[in-house]
Amino acid sequence: MFDRIDAFVRDVSTIETEIALAERLDEICREMGFAYFALTHHVDIRHTPGPAIRLANYPSDWVDYFDAHKLGPSDPVHRASHLTSVGFAWSKLSRLIALTPRDLQVLELAERRGIGDGFTVPANVPGEANGSCSFAIQAGRSLEEDQLPLAQLVGAFAFEAARRVCGVRMTGPLGEPRLTDRQRDCVIWAARGKSDWEIARILGLSHETVTEYLKRARERYGVGKRTLLAVHALFDGTISFNDVMKR
Amino acid sequence: MITIAERTAQPLADDMLRAMFEARKRVFVDLLKWNVPVIENRYEVDQFDDPHAVYLIAVGDDGEHLGSARLLETLRPHILDTLFADLCAAHPPRGPDILEITRFCLDRRLPAARRLTVRNTLVSAIADYALMRGVTGYTGIAEFGWLQQILAFGWRCRPLGLPAVRDGRTLGALWIDIGSDTPALLAQGGVYIADALGFTGERRAA
After folding, report:
1. Which of A34, A48, A77, A80 can pair with A135 through a Cys bridge, CB separation 3.0 to 4.6 Å?
2. Phi then psi dihedrals of residue A123, to 5 deg
């Protein structure tokens, strides 16, 4: 079976359209014993300005329901995939995240539309929306454990092929840093929940200077709130979780 | 700028290499909890840190370690054939023009944005080094997560076998194809930084 995956990888490394990639995924997904696949960035696909990927062969009424209820960013499978870099079975979701009543309802609704257990391969590339590639079986059947390493590999390479085909990759070298070092220091402390006055004391700056730095930083990201500023700076790697969460 | 260190008869006697071994200990032992040997409770040095290893090291303005990678000859014992041969469906690729990338290390003290620049500089240096020395491909083992990032750099990669779980980590072996178009592919991936090795590469034998 590895030969088949090797052939898949070589094949998708040269294809040029999303449709061609979806066809190859549909094919290999069935050969691995799955019925459905979904390769996606975890965003609300209808409200995303930049390029975002979504390829899937789920039943269309499920896709409509998913979009209508804005499940892109809150889907329990997607949330779980932000916490791990290794594929996981949906039946083991509760080991990764606390499932809310709403989550359980989503999984049950999917099952009613014929989507059974599944296996999700997270695909997180720094500076980009998180993503994943999932494979699911028909409701009522059970997942074959020995297929999971195959799915892991196919998912990883398929996601990369999708990034290439959909033009998600950043073009050109990284631009100038969006924030100055001093602004960045202030954003880290703001992300840690400190007020401007507290940040001024910590960094030995005047209160006005800190307020000015954070105002400029918000302008650079085009956001109005310090919470959003922190989220954007985390997203593009200007600050890291480590910066914010270390003691 | 990246420094190439090779033919290192006494690696621990050299300041730059010592700083690298210390950084490797902080990353691979303290952070990632790899079960690898540590010397003097400070330096991560294993049996492959010998005079045949080549190191590409990113050094800061004050001589501090920013990042590094170790390249091993595949005709000699290396990590894939010695410790992880089961990650390859066939025999691990070997040849005078094939090197194994190991211990890709970004210093833990780097802030996020700088980290990305150092990472890109190192990846560019790895590609340029191959072109300079006639290397046609690299092998390497990566934990999933990191493996997804390696694919995202934009160079041509293929899996060498199915992933396997070792010590609770899911690992995969990769082949990275190197050709004259590799810098362009890395540039499309937003990764390539030209001239990472300097005009001819700053070389030193420690």
Report:
1. A34
2. -140, 90
Answer whether A238 sits within 8 Å of B151, measured CB to CB: no
Mean pLDDT of the B115-130 span: 95
Please tell me the distance from the alpha carbon of residue A204 to that of residue A200, in angstroms, as a whole number.
6
* Strand pairing report for B98-106 and B137-143: parallel
Query: What is chain B's mean pLDDT, rounded?
Result: 92
Question: Taking the CB of residue A195, how many other CB atoms lie within 10 A of it?
Answer: 13
Task: Please report the domains of chain B, with CATH numbers, ordered by start residue.
Answer: 2-198 (3.40.630.30)
Asked if CATH classification 3.30.70.100 holds for the domain at A2-166, the reply, yes or no, is no
Locate CATH 1.10.10.10 in chain A: 181-245
Could you count the other beta carbons within 10 Å of the beta carbon of residue B91?
Answer: 10
Q: How confident is the model at residue A86 (pLDDT cuts 50, 70, 90)?
A: confident
- The CATH class of A181-245 is mainly alpha
How much of chain A exceeds pLDDT 90, in percent? 39
CA atoms within 13 A on the CB side of A52: 18
d(CA A108, CA A110): 5
% of chain B residues with pLDDT over 70: 96
Task: State the pTM of this model.
Answer: 0.82
**pLDDT value for A172:** 35
Q: DSSP per residue over A8-68, as a string? A: HHHHHTT---HHHHHHHHHHHHHHTT-SEEEEEESS-GGG--S---EEE-S-HHHHHHHHH
Average pLDDT of span B44-53: 95
CATH 3.30.450.80 region(s) of chain A?
2-166
Q: Quick one: pLDDT band at residue B206, thresholds 50, 70, 90?
A: very low
Q: How close B18 gets to chain A, by Cα (Å)?
A: 25
- What are the helix and strand counts (H, E) for chain A? 11, 5
Give chain A's contact residues with B (Cβ, < 8 Å).
Answer: 2-3, 5-6, 9-10, 13, 85-87, 121-127, 149-150, 152-153, 156-157, 159-160, 163-164, 169-174, 177, 184, 237-240, 242-243
φ, ψ of residue B140 in degrees (nearest 5): -175, 160
The CA distance from B126 to B120, in Å, is 10
B150 touches chain A (CB under 8 A): no
Q: Output the average pLDDT for chain A.
A: 85
pLDDT beyond 70 at A72: no
